[in-house]
Amino acid sequence: MIQLFHVFKTYPPNSQALNDISLEIDKGEFVFLTGPSGAGKTTLLKLLFREEEPTNGQILLNGQNINRLNRRGVARLRRQIGLVFQEFKLLPRLTALENVALAAEVVGTSKNGSHTKAYHLLRELGLKEKYTAKPLTLSGGEQQRVAIARAVVNDPMLLLADEPTGNLDAEIADETMRMFLKIRERGTTIIIASHNLELIKRYGTRIISLRHGFVADDLQKVVRHEGMH
Ligand SMILES: Nc1ncnc2c1ncn2[C@@H]1O[C@H](COP(=O)(O)OP(=O)(O)O)[C@@H](O)[C@H]1O
Ligand SMILES: [Mg+2]
Predict the structure, then answer these.
(1) Model confidence pTM above 0.90
(2) What's the helix, strand, coil split of the chain in %, to 5?
């Protein structure tokens, strides 16, 4: 589904963030992107979302070269990608339900349809008591889970998360990961940039390690999720 061919990214004047990255990620994979600060994790996510363009090399999404997209193509691409950040970026005046619904409304779903979708999604993700709560009355973990619901309300094919548990303590981070796994069951491909080794050990099925913009390691492993079902 995602193919990178000899991708380089240099930020002006001379900061080499990615250095000859070639990778393939299949539909439905659950990938951790790890590596020390400055390794190029965020840059790689930004290239997939077309927030940045590679200096060299090609990125194909479902066979399509995303660097050739015009403005409309970029808009269409972005509608198929959900984003989650370390900061939750919820709108404080809206309820949890409204925050999620708004993301559906802005891509053209009717107000009713959006609210219905948001309602079912929050229920599916175990947040149904929080429909009417304003973000600031929620815990950090709950806010992040609402933010994740918002990122997937339009059924993206790909979910990109940049240090999503960076501000959460261990137990809450665990809940957040379980939510990502639920989303994966919907068929969404998930890429999580993180340097939380504990989580990666527990949940990583594929672990791509970057160092100085190179792929230092690409490990696939079978993990069992204790106490999950
Ligand atoms: N907008 C930018 N301008 C210049 N250099 C940048 C910019 N964004 C990132 N970099 C540099 O690119 C490298 C990779 O950064 P980044 O992708 O943010 O790494 P990570 O997310 O793994 O910490 C770092 O050396 C960083 O300083
Ligand atoms: Mg980063």
Answers:
(1) yes
(2) 40, 25, 35
